[in-house]
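User: Predict the structure for this protein chain, please.
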Amino acid sequence: MNDILVLLYLADVVSGLSFVLAFSGLLGVLGVAAAAMVHEDVKILKSYLWIPAVFLFIATLIPSKQFLYIAVGGIATERVVGKVAESEIGQKVWSLVNQKIDEALASEGKKK
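Assistant: Here is the predicted structure, written as C-alpha coordinates:
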Protein backbone atom coordinates (compact mmCIF):
# COMPACT_ATOMS: atom_id res chain seq x y z
CA MET A 1 0.00 0.00 0.00
CA ASN A 2 2.87 2.34 0.76
CA ASP A 3 4.23 2.05 -2.77
CA ILE A 4 0.86 3.17 -4.15
CA LEU A 5 0.98 6.24 -1.92
CA VAL A 6 4.50 6.96 -3.14
CA LEU A 7 3.33 6.70 -6.74
CA LEU A 8 0.45 9.09 -6.04
CA TYR A 9 2.89 11.54 -4.47
CA LEU A 10 5.21 11.25 -7.46
CA ALA A 11 2.27 11.97 -9.77
CA ASP A 12 1.86 15.36 -8.12
CA VAL A 13 5.59 16.04 -8.17
CA VAL A 14 5.89 15.08 -11.83
CA SER A 15 3.06 17.39 -12.85
CA GLY A 16 4.80 20.31 -11.14
CA LEU A 17 8.13 19.37 -12.67
CA SER A 18 6.61 19.25 -16.13
CA PHE A 19 5.20 22.75 -15.70
CA VAL A 20 8.51 24.13 -14.41
CA LEU A 21 10.46 22.59 -17.29
CA ALA A 22 8.01 23.88 -19.90
CA PHE A 23 7.95 27.36 -18.39
CA SER A 24 11.75 27.44 -18.12
CA GLY A 25 12.05 26.28 -21.72
CA LEU A 26 9.73 28.99 -22.98
CA LEU A 27 11.51 31.66 -20.96
CA GLY A 28 14.82 30.33 -22.22
CA VAL A 29 13.72 30.56 -25.84
CA LEU A 30 12.56 34.12 -25.30
CA GLY A 31 15.77 35.01 -23.44
CA VAL A 32 18.06 33.60 -26.10
CA ALA A 33 16.06 35.31 -28.84
CA ALA A 34 16.20 38.62 -26.95
CA ALA A 35 19.95 38.29 -26.39
CA ALA A 36 20.48 37.56 -30.06
CA MET A 37 18.43 40.60 -31.02
CA VAL A 38 20.20 42.93 -28.57
CA HIS A 39 23.69 41.86 -29.58
CA GLU A 40 22.67 41.41 -33.23
CA ASP A 41 24.50 38.12 -33.30
CA VAL A 42 22.93 35.00 -34.75
CA LYS A 43 25.68 32.87 -33.24
CA ILE A 44 24.14 33.39 -29.80
CA LEU A 45 20.87 31.99 -31.11
CA LYS A 46 22.61 28.98 -32.63
CA SER A 47 24.83 28.39 -29.60
CA TYR A 48 22.30 28.54 -26.78
CA LEU A 49 18.92 27.65 -28.29
CA TRP A 50 19.45 23.94 -27.70
CA ILE A 51 19.28 24.34 -23.89
CA PRO A 52 15.66 25.53 -23.68
CA ALA A 53 14.78 23.15 -26.51
CA VAL A 54 15.96 20.25 -24.34
CA PHE A 55 13.83 21.54 -21.44
CA LEU A 56 10.77 21.68 -23.69
CA PHE A 57 11.49 18.22 -25.09
CA ILE A 58 11.79 16.69 -21.62
CA ALA A 59 8.60 18.46 -20.51
CA THR A 60 6.71 16.81 -23.37
CA LEU A 61 8.02 13.36 -22.43
CA ILE A 62 6.81 13.54 -18.82
CA PRO A 63 3.43 11.81 -18.51
CA SER A 64 0.43 13.75 -17.29
CA LYS A 65 -0.93 13.49 -13.76
CA GLN A 66 -4.13 11.87 -15.05
CA PHE A 67 -2.17 9.13 -16.83
CA LEU A 68 -0.23 8.36 -13.67
CA TYR A 69 -3.46 8.24 -11.65
CA ILE A 70 -4.90 5.76 -14.15
CA ALA A 71 -1.75 3.63 -13.93
CA VAL A 72 -1.85 3.60 -10.12
CA GLY A 73 -5.55 2.71 -10.25
CA GLY A 74 -4.74 -0.21 -12.53
CA ILE A 75 -2.07 -1.45 -10.14
CA ALA A 76 -4.42 -1.20 -7.15
CA THR A 77 -7.22 -2.97 -9.03
CA GLU A 78 -4.89 -5.76 -10.07
CA ARG A 79 -3.86 -6.28 -6.44
CA VAL A 80 -7.46 -6.35 -5.19
CA VAL A 81 -8.56 -8.83 -7.84
CA GLY A 82 -5.52 -10.98 -7.10
CA LYS A 83 -6.32 -11.04 -3.37
CA VAL A 84 -9.95 -11.96 -4.03
CA ALA A 85 -9.00 -14.69 -6.50
CA GLU A 86 -6.51 -16.16 -4.02
CA SER A 87 -9.03 -16.36 -1.17
CA GLU A 88 -11.11 -19.48 -0.56
CA ILE A 89 -14.39 -17.63 -1.13
CA GLY A 90 -13.05 -16.11 -4.33
CA GLN A 91 -12.13 -19.52 -5.68
CA LYS A 92 -15.59 -20.85 -4.81
CA VAL A 93 -17.22 -17.91 -6.56
CA TRP A 94 -15.11 -18.48 -9.69
CA SER A 95 -15.95 -22.20 -9.74
CA LEU A 96 -19.67 -21.44 -9.26
CA VAL A 97 -19.61 -18.86 -12.05
CA ASN A 98 -17.81 -21.30 -14.36
CA GLN A 99 -20.33 -24.02 -13.50
CA LYS A 100 -23.30 -21.74 -14.27
CA ILE A 101 -21.71 -20.64 -17.55
CA ASP A 102 -21.15 -24.27 -18.54
CA GLU A 103 -24.77 -25.08 -17.68
CA ALA A 104 -26.03 -22.10 -19.70
CA LEU A 105 -23.91 -23.10 -22.70
CA ALA A 106 -25.09 -26.71 -22.43
CA SER A 107 -28.74 -25.62 -22.34
CA GLU A 108 -28.13 -23.34 -25.36
CA GLY A 109 -26.65 -26.29 -27.23
CA LYS A 110 -29.71 -28.47 -26.45
CA LYS A 111 -32.09 -25.75 -27.70
CA LYS A 112 -30.42 -25.64 -31.11
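Helices lie at 2-39, 42-48, 50-61, 65-86, 88-111.
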